[in-house]
Amino acid sequence: MKRTLILLMLCGAVTASAQQTLTTDEPAKVAPPPPPATIEKTEFEQVYPVKRTMSLGLFAGYAMDFHSADAMTLPEVPSCCPGYDGGTGGGLVAGLTIEFPISSSLELVTRLSYHGSNVTMTTDEPITVRDGNTTMTGTITHELKTQTTIIAIEPAVEFRVGKGLGILGGIRAGTLLSATYDEQEILDPSIPYDYQGGSGVRNASSGDI
To answer: How many domains does the chain have?
Structure first.
């Protein structure tokens, strides 16, 4: 009886030791990564898929204007100016834009815009006057300021080259709402002379173009 008990105890100890060894050597199981988060569509989007068919917006900015001319003068306006060669200016641009997507990278665009422009053109005319027993040189500055307002429609095509970036090309057709001018001749203040009436300005005029 004693031998039997001792043998059973030894077998049980060997079995427990083997189980412990197997349990210790087995690699730990790594939990699988969680599935990627997904954005669940609303019930409305599941029933009615959302797709952009048109975009409507407003735009505004400041436009720089560069005018070029070749000895330009205003007809029927008294002036001794030899002619204006051009000038610079600018004004407000604002309007409404409508976009119709054709594909993921191409859109039809239509703009209705308002453009106000103020441009100044000047020409300096050299003169020589007598100053006592000598002569001196100076200038007469011919100044022309124009103010115009234009309303235009601009059909165009936009090609999107990236997120928030596109290339726009089209044509512009507009009509002139108003156009006025102010013109004058200013004598060089360094010259000790004045025009008739004691003024350094003459041939000042304004009106519609």
So the answer is: 1
